[in-house]
Every structure is written in C-alpha cells, then in structure tokens.
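Appendix C reproduces, verbatim, an entry submitted by the partner laboratory led by Prof. M.T., so that reviewers can inspect both the input and the predicted structure.
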Amino acid sequence: MKPSLKLTSEERRAAIIQAVRRAFAEKGFHGTTTRELAKEAGVSEALLFKHFPNKEALYSAMMQASCQEKNPEMYERLRALEPSTSTLVLLVHLMVTHLVGHKPDGYEDSLQTRLILRSLAEDGDFARLFLQRIVGPILAKLEDSIQAAVAEGEALEGPGQPRLRARFANALAAMIRFHLTPEEPAMDYGVPLEKLVEQVVWFTLRGIGLKDEAIKRYYNPKTLALFAG
C-alpha cells in the first residue's frame, strides 16, 4: 500500500478552505458548527483551530479564496481593451456565456453560485465581496463602453444611466444562472443553452440601448468565443 504524502501546513490550510465551501453553501455561516466544518474537511476540531483561530477566520479565508480570478490572463486582456461598441458587445457576450452558457455539472460546479445565493439570504458579505472583486472591474469597463457606444452614435443616450445599464445587464444574466442551478432547472426556457445565450445577449444589448444595426455588425458568437480561448 502506497503511503499517503503528508501535507504541508499551507497545503492543509488550502485543503480545509476548499472542503468547507460545501458546508457554508448548504447552511451558511450561522447555521454551520465548527464540528461540522472539521468533519467536512476530514480533520479534527483541534487541527481546524490550529490553522484558523475561529469560525470567522475560516469563513473569511474561504471568501477570499473563492473570490480570486479563475482566469487572470483573460481578465487582463479585458482590462486592456479600449472602451468601444465592439468591446461592449464582447463583454456582454462573455458575461452571458459564463453565467448562462453552461449547465452546472454536479454540485461542485455550482458551489460558487450556491455560496452567493446563501450569502444573499443572510448578511450578503460573500456576495458583496464577489461582486466587488470579480464583477466590479468588468462592470466598470462595460459602463465605459456604453458611454463610448453612445458617443459613437451606435447606442441610445437614454433614459437609463450607463452605470445602471451595466448593472442591469449583469443582474439579468445572474438571475438566469440562478434558475439553471438546480439539477432540474427552476425555469424551462425551452431552447438549447447555445440558443439561450444568443437570445439573452440580443435582449441585453437592446436593453442597454445598442441599435440593431450595431448588434448585427459586432455580434458574431463564434468569433467572440475565440477571445476566451
């Protein structure tokens, strides 16, 4: 029998953080005991407290770890884009594709969404941190691109503020993601995911105020998908 490798302190800490995400997603911060967290992580409470002085510290570490960019190279490319109509279409397509374009493959794949939903049902701390760190920079670029599209004459100037239009776009895609999270979706949209993505992108771009001719000019799903490759 091959002996198991002993984890370093840093590796054990990371393993604990990863393991407790399920418990926090299911019961939230207040509904989870340190005994349950230790059991989920496969360690004793004593070992748990060796790495984290209390439940608050573990929850904070879990939040920080869960709010790291999963694809920093792509985010860097997005931040480098100049605000424009084409950037606006790209951002909306990528956002909708990420949130709507794939059905969660089992519980683990849906944990991030479940953590956000649990957070929204409680104090909102995790949801706020996630929106600030991961979504915030994209919304800022989206807002600038809406303003650029208006200046280019390819989007309507009003009545909604660019800042709110950007946030409404994210909220729509996020809510559809919530509908698709259960194994049996809460709402049946009646079309394949690929088609749903295209419909949501068109709906969102029109809601933002982009003119149809501009959408037709810049929205090519297959070409835009290469950006995230």
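The CA atoms of residues 5 and 63 lie 27 Å apart. Additional entries are available on request from the coordinating office.
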